[in-house]
Amino acid sequence: MARVEGFTACLMAVLLATVPAGAARAQSPSPSATPAAARMLAPSAVLDAAVQAAMLVDAGRAGELWDGASPVAKRAVTREAFIAGITAARQRHGMLTDRQWLSVSRQFHDGRQGAPAGHYVSVELLARASGGRSIRELVSLRIDEDGTARLSGYVVE
């Protein structure tokens, strides 16, 4: 697993705004039901976007994540609540370092499983917190109707 170093806010903005959808494994009903863009996106592009999203959180810029998020995510939580929730969750863990990826997966939700219907890509990251504890982050992107993958969730455990 590669160690992630550096930070490029412009790259994050470009990735969240323009990543056409897709990822590693599908749980959709059939390949023909998956948008072409979802089948084409390399898992590494999703991984790069997820790491950059986590690094924006590291930099205290969660508001920028919400600004570029999927409309589905914006309907679920206000900007203020999103920022407050992420800030509170991250303050419990302190600064995260040595971030590595654990998994990249693609899911299809039909709207009955608690998530709005659509195609999603999730990246699970493992980071080291102060004191040496391992912390998991889950960054999820939704493949919106225009074929662009946008942030749909960020969870730190």
Total beta strands? 4
How confident overall, as mean pLDDT?
78
Strand content: 25-35%
Order of strands across the widest beta sheet? 1-2-3-4
Structural class: alpha+beta
Distance from N terminus to C terminus (CA atoms, Å) equals 20 Å
Unreliable sequence segments: 1-32
Oligomer: single chain
Which sequence of SSEs, written as H and E, runs from N to C? HHHHHHEEEE
From the alpha carbons, calculate the radius of gyration and give it in angstroms: 15 Å
Basic shape = globular
Tell me about the biggest sheet?
4 strands, antiparallel
Helix content: 25-40%
User: Number of helical runs?
Assistant: 6
Q: What's the short story on this structure?
A:
By secondary structure, this protein is of the alpha+beta class. The protein has helices spanning 9-18, 36-40, 43-58, 62-67, 71-76, 79-91, and strands at residues 97-109, 118-128, 134-143, 149-156.
How would you describe the overall organization of this protein?
The chain has 157 residues and is an alpha+beta fold. Helices cover 36% and strands 27% of the residues. The protein has 6 helices and 4 strands. A 4-stranded antiparallel β-sheet has the order 1-2-3-4. The longest helix has 16 residues, at 43-58. 33% of the residues are buried.
Brief descriptors of the model:
157 residues; alpha+beta; four-stranded antiparallel beta sheet; 27% strand; globular
Task: Please specify the SSE layout and strand pairing.
Blueprint: H1 9-18, H2 36-40, H3 43-58, H4 62-67, H5 71-76, H6 79-91, E1 97-109, E2 118-128, E3 134-143, E4 149-156
Antiparallel strand pairs: 1-2, 2-3, 3-4
Helix pairs in contact: 1-3
